[in-house]
Amino acid sequence: MAQKISAPRGTRDLLPEDALAWERVEAVVRDLSARYGFERIDTPLFERTELFARGLGESSDAVEKEMFRVSGGKGSEEELSEWALRPEPTAGIVRAYVEHGLHVRPSPLRLWTMGPMFRYARPQAGRYRQFTQWDVEVIGDPGPMVDAELIELAHRFYAQVGLRGVVAQLNSIGDGVCRPRFREALLAYFTPLADRLSADSQHRLRVNPLRVLDDKELDPALAAGAPKSLDYLCDACRAHFDGLRELLDRLQLPFAINHRLVRGLDYYTRTTVEFYVAGREGQQDALGGGGRYDGLIEVLGGQPAAAIGFGLGIDRTVIAAQAQGAGGERGPSVLAVVSASPNALAGRLRIATALRDAGVPVRVDGLSRKLGRQLESAVKAGAGWALILNDPEGERLTLRDLASGEQRDLALDQVPAALSP
Ligand code: AMP
Description:
Elements: H1 16-35, E1 39-40, E2 46-48, H2 49-56, H3 61-64, E3 68-70, H4 77-82, E4 83-85, H5 90-99, E5 109-118, E6 130-139, H6 145-160, E7 166-172, H7 179-190, H8 199-207, H9 220-225, H10 235-250, E8 255-257, E9 269-277, E10 288-292, H11 296-299, E11 307-313, H12 314-323, E12 335-339, H13 345-357, E13 362-364, H14 371-380, E14 385-389, E15 397-401, E16 407-410, H15 415-419
Parallel strand pairs: 1-5, 7-8, 12-13, 12-14
Antiparallel strand pairs: 2-4, 3-4, 5-6, 6-11, 7-9, 9-10, 10-11, 14-15, 15-16
Helix pairs in contact: 2-5, 6-10
């Protein structure tokens, strides 16, 4: 036998038994995207590497360590560095916004997308090299109402997919006016402690000191004594954050302040948010996250515009919902078309086609075998009913409930109604 080929490390095959849980979540995504007035946008799965370097920041993990480069065929050095699979959707969406001049459309622009993202990191439980996000972006709205609206939307999403006990963590990392002071304070605090930082954090301290705070290996005692961004907010950022807190209180949406929540990307401003299942607030387990990026559009060559976006991870959401026992229900029941005569294949196919035409989900047995075997196979495949052709052309039909074994004779045009509950 030829050698088997396995899936690339860090990727997952979603087998039919996973599909129902995914489809349920996708249905919630579509429903909420429409109900909250978002318009769909789809951008390419790969972009110029430079877009991510500029859009996410050279010092972000996604760019520095996890970029999934793709070759243009010949695979020369140049080509290898030119393109990368998208690690997140915002940079591509903002690129499209600038490229197509979407700023002239009625503002704010509310966009959503869903699809695979790619990060070349070491695979672990819940961390894949290809994973799916539902992403919402609002461009042209300085908030804080829209910040609260998106947090409420995320909570509704988790509730609607059947996930209980989701908590929001919240922080504000200020803006171009106040962040430099916070950055200085972090440098002053961590520099003398550099030998107690991980090698990674020592590097972060040089390129982006905020990111020392989101190093999982940071000694909790050091973290506890570190300067807090909320203490450094300028008046405008303070007013925005207080406004957001008040709105969340008014909506009775609980949240916890997490001073270490700086998010990895350089162009976040003000609000940063992450969602966890309560009790699982480890870095690896975030179900979703997002924040404001008021500076990004300008960095990518557009007219400055305030913006905010959330990326909610579908893989982790489905896994967490399944762990809580949600999503175990079965799909719509299928009707199996079988026949008393082992060879009535043409008749089965004709009847199956007519029923599909009438909207009935049908599987048709295509093997020449005895009726008993056909029925057994229908039960094994999970069909709810079997329609038995008693003669080769199916002029006389019997409908059998495969769970109870009850049978009745009926005409073809009575079948759809007989199946409705
Ligand atoms: P991030 O932009 O890293 O905050 O990602 C947003 C969300 O996408 C996370 O909260 C996760 O749910 C999901 N996510 C990010 N990276 C991965 C990954 N490597 N594997 C699975 N899900 C991921």
